[in-house]
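Changelog excerpt

This revision adds worked examples to the README so contributors can see how folded entries look when concatenated. The first example is reproduced verbatim below.
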Amino acid sequence: MGDKILFVEDEEDLTLIVADTLRGQGYEVITAADGMEGLEKFKTITADIVIADVMMPKMDGFTMAKEIRKLSPTVPLLFLTAKSTIDDVEEGFAIGANDYLKKPFELRELIVRIRALLRRH
């Protein structure tokens, strides 16, 4: 069994494509559609890495990440965002993000970044 990825994204089509691709790479993928669900799932499963959209309903990615950081100071966090201002990037890293990927992104780039983060942790 591969590493466990918690993928938190509100765009259903993107979630299906990414989850399918990552499973094809041998990862176990747990998905959530918003920050609240993502946080609840993080509490019940042990994820090796968390990939989260920033802009989501109910609870955004930054707020969810702050809560996850309280539970696990070391789990790798990768943010996906359509917002690419330096302020957003800065805020993400201040919260404890390990990496950032701007939408739209290449799936191959996402996989390379996941592998790098998992190797480092």
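The second example, added in the same revision:
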Amino acid sequence: MPRTQPLIEARQLGVRLGGETIIRNVNLSVFDGQIVTLIGPNGAGKSTLIKTLLGVHRVSEGQLTLAPSLTIGYMPQRISIDDSLPLSVYRLMTLTHRAARTAVIDALRLTDVPHLIDRPVQQLSGGEFQRVMLARALLKQPDVLVLDEPVQGVDFNGEVELYRLIQRIRDERGCAILMVSHDLHLVMAATDEVVCLNGHVCCTGAPETITRQPEFTQLFGHKHADALAFYSHHHDHNHSLAEQGGHLHD
């Protein structure tokens, strides 16, 4: 039975690092089966918020509440692997979480790449690597998936497929998903709630409503707001490469 209380809840959350306030007055709730996407400009504090939810950074003010026995699977924004280091997909999957080979195969099957289990990581394409990292986050069978720029380093067609995969995982497993993204044109079709962050929460709401909020327009401009408002109502068909949207880089 789905939980009626949030899995993650932040109230007036603030974080200071090195004597500087990075985020303040952040209110955020993530429920079972919900996809929540954090957007915002460079330096908005998105990764800081994610790392605070994961316990990497300490809460400086406000309150952060996690559901009892909550399990979080985390897919980081970047991971650097030395080209000279012999590392298979199986070894990467189990570096920080011990698991049987059968469990690793099951996780890789969720992202459609079980055949890559013995492939050297250095030989993976960008899309394959992101699918492996997503499977790695799923290995713990999490209640919440936290994805920091999950389509980074992937071409446009790969981005579309990865967002569809993320939706499918949510639908099949019922887990909540909190992700950071700047691919606004695509994320409007792959999320339930958008949270716009710029040191604080500027605006929040469903994709079809957030683009009409003045705070969104002020932050991203009329051009993006108009394009995204159109896209959010016309995302149920395939797009050609000529129709692909731009990115707001983090």
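Reviewer comment on example two: The two ends are 37 Å apart (CA to CA). The helical segments are 46-53, 89-93, 101-110, 126-138, 156-173, 184-187, 207-210, 214-232.
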